[in-house]
Design brief:
Elements lengths: L1 H16 L4 E9 L2 E7 L6 E6 L2 E6 L5 E3 L12 E5 L7 E5 L4 E7 L3 E7 L32 H4 L8 H17 L3 E3 L27 E3 L5 H4 L15 H4 L10 H11 L9 H13 L3 H8 L7 H15 L18 H9 L8 H10 L2 H17 L3 H14 L5 H14 L2 H13 L6 H15 L6 H13 L6 H14 L3 H8 L6 H17 L2 H9 L3 H6 L2 H13 L3 H7 L9 H14 L3 H8 L8 H10 L3 H10 L3 H10 L13 H13 L9 H27 L1
Parallel strand pairs: 1-5
Antiparallel strand pairs: 1-2, 2-9, 3-4, 4-7, 6-7, 8-9, 10-11
Helix pairs in contact: 6-7, 7-8, 7-9, 8-9, 10-11, 12-13, 12-14, 13-14, 14-15, 14-16, 15-16, 16-18, 17-18, 18-19, 18-20, 19-20, 20-23, 23-24, 23-25, 24-25, 25-26, 25-27, 26-27, 27-28, 28-29, 29-30, 30-31
Length: 713
């Protein structure tokens, strides 16, 4: 009983552990298509269904959670616009940014491969496609049967000599040819060079006279050869091989430097390479990256060890590694190299060992923890590892006597991710006012301005002046585009749109410049007066108009349409590169067509949008066509009953008016119906007929006055 109970508990634990599973989703860009790979256990059921402008992947795993954090890191095209999962255990929803379709197949029984390509909807590979029909084998007398030894066929290939191997291979090839599984192309008969009959192993040149193909070779195009290449990971560098903890030595730094510098050159000015490496390690371990690089320059050649020292020295000196990075791919290693892999690559990989990275960081000398800690915290925050970033920053605070600008900036990043905007702004202001800032100050100002833009706040005149001074101070440096973009966005937040857009025209065009252009243009749409807005948008260059995002273009087109500029609004809502917000763009085109007296074109545009959207606009278009009944039906479907009664009355469909509402047009309809009723005359009673006619005339006049007053309201 005890064993049975233990076994039951173990099985329940295994079952519970399998209830919720994290399934990683990897991505990659290929020529002509975008590929997603979902790793699942063997024999897992799955389906891929096409949706409107997207696809839905369902996996038969209880409580499955798709890990999509790294999907967009490797994507450069716009085929995949969004990917999400509403609840654990739900389907993976994919939204396309192009007119694309998704196809899928299962690779190695554990990888669901989804390819997104701009093409027509392809049929799924299923059992409906018949498999190749193979003809039945025709019984035939094998001419080599008498020469074969059954015992030899069962032996491993390596134990056969050349003649036995040739006999067995020939028998198998002939059997395959009889069954039409292989095609043989035999070399023509003729003299051949003889070889010695030696009991060697397999012949060295088997493919000289024989070419073998099979039916599988003919299916390459059908199967699309969608084999996912296995990425070769570099071999992990152990902590013993790196031995970073021994680089600093045990004696005071001045004594070690003096001794090593004196020992670099031996007799006859012979360079001692070992001492050079020790000197470079000493410099690097104390944070002197430039000096370590200079010492390594004495060697004149590279070695694996010198490349590792050079990479660490470059990072400590400049914050980045130029050239080959020996720590690339080391984040998944259980060694000290994982930390340097994170720092030198600048982002977290999918297989990063966070525990190892944090433990290695804790073992660094205090001065290096102060130096690299803020940068490590920034990388962890960008990788959504906020709690690990907090632990790193707490370590930096413990070993620091005062807060540095880089640490305050890292804390501001963490606060922004946590949603604490007030603390983030306070920290960024501390960076701006800090005395030890160099490049941190303009970067902090850039983040502060970005936060103000996201919050739709404003900047002070002092902050605009500071952005302008940084743009002048860092002119000609690597920070020039950043400072100029920050200055332009700050100007737009301060309602100085002409200066902001003129400044953006002076910046070299790149992706970040397009982001700044979109931000300034959105501020122009939201805050500029009509004159300024029209002046800047109507003269916008084709290049800038093409660089606007779909969201910005829709905002510009909406305001243009509201101001009555139908042509420019229609052009902005009809850009070829826009693939999202189709309903919004269709409504703008419909409104522009209506303003241009083309109601039928507007109806065609609105036919592409859902019936629940743009109800008022659809009613206006139908009203412009004179179809009051259809207008009333559209309004009634959207619960606008009073407006629907008005158009039923205009369409002379008083029977459709809902009189129970007792609104204005239900009363107007009742008055209309009363006035429309014919008068019953009594010619046989002239006096009574005259009296009734006078009474009816008085009532009719009152109803007409009431009707006119209700219509005029």
């Amino acid at each position: 009983m005890i064993r049975a109970a233990i076994l039951a508990v173990a099985l329940m634990a295994i079952a519970c552990a399998a209830v919720a599973q994290d399934v990683p989703v990897r991505s990659g860009e290929h020529e002509g298509y975008t590929r997603l790979v979902v790793q699942v256990p063997t024999n897992t059921g799955w389906t891929l269904a096409q949706t409107k402008n997207g696809a839905r992947l369902s996996v038969a795993l209880d409580g499955v959670k798709f890990d999509t954090r790294s999907v967009f890191r490797r994507l450069t095209q716009n085929r995949l616009a969004a990917i999400s999962q509403s609840t654990p255990g739900g389907a993976l929803e994919m939204q396309f940014g192009c007119d694309c379709v998704a196809s899928s197949f299962l690779h190695n029984k554990t990888m669901i491969v989804v390819d997104i390509a701009p093409a027509a909807l392809l049929p799924e590979i299923s059992g409906d496609i018949p498999s190749p029909l193979l003809p039945k084998a025709i019984p035939a007398q094998n001419p080599l049967k008498q020469t074969q030894l059954p015992e030899a066929l069962s032996l491993p290939l390596l134990s056969l000599n050349a003649q036995q191997f040739e006999s067995q291979l020939s028998a198998r090839l002939l059997q395959g040819a009889d069954r039409e599984l292989v095609d043989l192309k035999i070399a023509p008969v003729g003299p051949r060079a003889s070889i010695a009959q030696e009991p060697a192993l397999a012949p060295m040149d088997l493919d000289a006279n024989i070419t073998v193909t099979s039916v599988l070779d003919e299916l390459d195009e059908f199967l699309d050869a969608g084999i996912i290449p296995n990425e070769r990971q570099p071999q992990c560098l152990s902590s013993a091989d790196l031995s970073f903890g021994t680089w600093g030595g045990t004696n005071p730094f001045p004594e070690l430097v003096s001794a090593l510098r004196s020992a670099v050159y031996q007799e006859f000015d012979t360079l001692d390479e070992t001492k050079v490496l020790e000197l470079a390690k000493l410099y690097a371990s104390h944070g002197f990256g430039a000096e370590a690089i200079q010492a390594l320059g004495l060697l004149g050649r590279n070695s694996p060890e010198s490349e590792r020292i050079n990479a660490i020295a470059q990072y400590l000196d400049d914050g980045q590694v130029s050239g080959s990075n020996p720590f690339k791919g080391q984040q998944g290693c259980d060694s000290d190299a994982a930390l340097w892999g994170v720092l030198t690559e600048g982002n977290l990989s999918d297989d990063v060992r966070l525990k190892t990275v944090e433990q290695t960081f804790q073992r660094l000398p205090k001065h290096l923890r102060r130096q690299v800690g803020p940068a490590l915290a920034e990388i962890l925050t960008e990788g959504k590892e906020v709690e690990a970033a907090r632990r790193v920053l707490r370590t930096v605070d413990r070993v620091s006597d005062y807060s540095t600008a880089s640490a305050s900036q890292a804390k501001a990043t963490v606060a922004t991710v946590e949603g604490d905007g007030e603390r983030a702004e306070t920290l960024l202001r501390d960076v701006l006012s800090s005395s030890d800032t160099t490049v941190e100050a303009p970067l902090a100002l850039a983040r502060l301005v970005e936060k103000r833009w996201l919050d739709r706040g404003s900047v002070s005149a002092k902050e605009v002046e500071l952005a302008a001074s940084y743009a002048v101070e860092f002119r000609g440096s690597e920070l020039q585009p950043t400072t100029q973009r920050t200055h332009a966005v700050a100007l737009s937040l301060n309602h100085e749109f002409d200066q902001a857009l003129n400044l953006l025209g002076e910046i070299p065009k790149d992706t970040e410049d397009e982001v700044a252009l979109n931000r300034v243009t959105q501020m122009l749409v939201e805050r500029a007066d009509d004159t300024t807005f029209l002046r800047r948008t109507l003269i916008m260059s084709k290049r800038n108009a093409h660089a606007l995002s779909t969201e910005t273009a829709v905002a510009v087109a909406t305001r243009l349409a509201s101001l009555g500029f139908a042509g420019p609004a229609h052009s902005m809502a009809s850009r070829i590169q826009d693939k999202t917000q189709k309903s919004d763009r269709a409504r703008i085109r419909a409104q522009s067509a209506l303003q241009s007296n083309r109601p039928h074109q507007a109806l065609l545009e609105l036919a592409k949008t859902p019936s629940t959207d743009a109800v008022d606009l659809r009613a206006q278009v139908l009203q412009a066509t004179g179809d009051f009944a259809a207008t009333a039906n559209v309004l009634r479907a959207s619960d606008q009953h009073e407006a629907a009664n008005r158009f039923f009355w205009l369409a002379d469909l008083n029977d459709e008016v809902e009189t129970k509402l007792d609104d204005r047009y239900s009363q107007v309809s009742q008055s209309t119906q009363f006035l429309s009723q014919p008068l019953t005359r009594s010619p046989d009673r002239p006096l009574a007929d005259a009296r009734e006619l006078l009474q009816h005339s008085a009532i009719t006049r009152r109803e007409i006055v009431a009707l006119l007053s209700k219509v005029a309201e």
